[in-house]
Amino acid sequence: MVDAAPMDAIDATRAKDRKDHAEDAAKESAKGSAKGSAKDRERSSRRGRRGRRGRRERVRGKADQPWWFALPALAVFGLFFLLPNLLNFVYPFTDWSAFHSKIGFVGLSNFSTILQDGSMARDIRITLEYAVLVAVFQNGFGLGLALLLERDTRFNRFFRAVFFLPVLISALAVGYLFRALLAQDGALNSVLSSLAGHHVDTPWLGSTTWTLVVVTLIHGWKWMGLAMLIYLAGLKSMPGDVLEAARIDGAGAWRTFWSIRFPLLAPAVTFNVTTALIGSMNTFDIVQATTAGGPGSETEVFNIYMFRIFGQGLYAQASAMSLVLFLIVVVLAVPVIVGLRRRENNQ
User: Fold this and answer.
1) Confidence (pTM)
2) Mean pLDDT value across residues 174-180
3) Residue 1: its pLDDT value, please?
4) What DSSP string runs through 214-269?
5) Ramachandran region of residue 99, left (φ > 0), alpha (ψ -120 to 50) or beta?
6) What does the mean pLDDT of the chain come to?
7) 311: enclosing H helix or E strand
8) 275: nearest Cα among 216, 218, 336
9) DSSP tag of 208
10) Is 29 exposed, middle or buried (0-12, 13-18, 19+ CB in 10 A)?
11) What pLDDT, in 10s, does the model give residues 51-100?
12) What sign for the dihedral angle of Cα 322, 323, 324, 328?
């Protein structure tokens, strides 16, 4: 029989060795973890220092960009835009003209003078008629083109660009172009003479009946491309599920447009109508290039009248008229904008 005592001693020795080895391994692991933690802490601290340094450099970089680099642009803006607009609220109360060497304060004298002039009331009426007609034509043309060119085809994309081109052309150039086309011996009457078989010399820009309508058509043609783009954006942003539901319910094209699509175009209508009214009430270049206010002052909008007074050397009176036009635009535009925005919210 084998003696059990030596075997127990051997097992005890092996167990002790395993225990010592485990303790050594635990110590080494603890040392490694401590070293790793120290390295991690050092690495994190290094990253934090780099981040703080980067932030300080960015702040220093912004501080190194001198604000006075903007001074030339600010000077041009202040000299040619801000200062003249501020002076426009001062000169109407002076006697500034080509006939005085000095400028003196005269109070409301210029306003009483222009109010007593019968031309002012007539020109305000013509300006309002012009603005309403332009808003109708510009938005009618723009909405019609947007509906016709709504689908994204190559053909439609090409003609969208074509109809937008007049927006990029100078208004004076457009006016002189149509003045040549609509002259009594111009291209339009030549084409009509060829079609009719006899001489046609219709005075398109010389009639006291329809010349104002013709000029507003030219104005609407020039800006219809911008209205078209705004209406196209509104049509493209309409939810498809609403239109699909209307189609499933059996609504026709006209019913869908009038009951669903047109109400959803309310923001586009607000923008286009507002810009058309304000822009046409401040018109000058197209009217000056086509008719210069004629015939018989039937197209003399307010800015043409103001230009005529300024050309006579009555600068303070012209400034007073400019201030009156500004007040008219504000008084008329604010209710229109408020009404259109209320219509948007009720849709």
Assistant:
1) 0.77
2) 95
3) 43
4) HHHHHHHHHHHHHHHHHHHHHHHTS-HHHHHHHHHTT--HHHHIIIIIHHHTHHHH
5) alpha
6) 85
7) helix 302-311
8) 336
9) T
10) exposed
11) 566 565 565 555 566 777 888 999 999 999 999 889 999 999 999 999 88
12) positive
**How many CA atoms within 13 Å lie on the side-chain side of 220?**
23
Three-class secondary structure of residue 58 per DSSP: helix
Closest CA to 293 of 212, 223, 201, 218: 212
3-state SS, residue 94: strand
Q: Do 99 and 313 meet the contact criterion of CB atoms below 8 Å apart?
A: yes
Taking the C-alpha atoms of residue 1 and residue 14, their distance in angstroms, rounded to an integer, is: 23
Q: Residues 6 or more apart from 242 whose CB is under 8 A from it?
A: 260, 264
For tokens 């932030």, the residue is 55
> What is the per-residue pLDDT for 241?
85
The pLDDT assigned to 144 comes to 95
Q: Kindly state the tokens that stand for 56.
A: 């300080």
Q: How many other CB atoms sit within 10 Å of the CB of residue 95?
A: 18
Q: Which two tokens stand for residue 105?
A: 């304060």
> Per-residue confidence at 167, pLDDT binned at 50, 70, 90?
very high
**Token code pair at residue 199:** 């001489």
Helices 118-148 and 211-236 sit at what angle, rounded to 10 degrees? 40
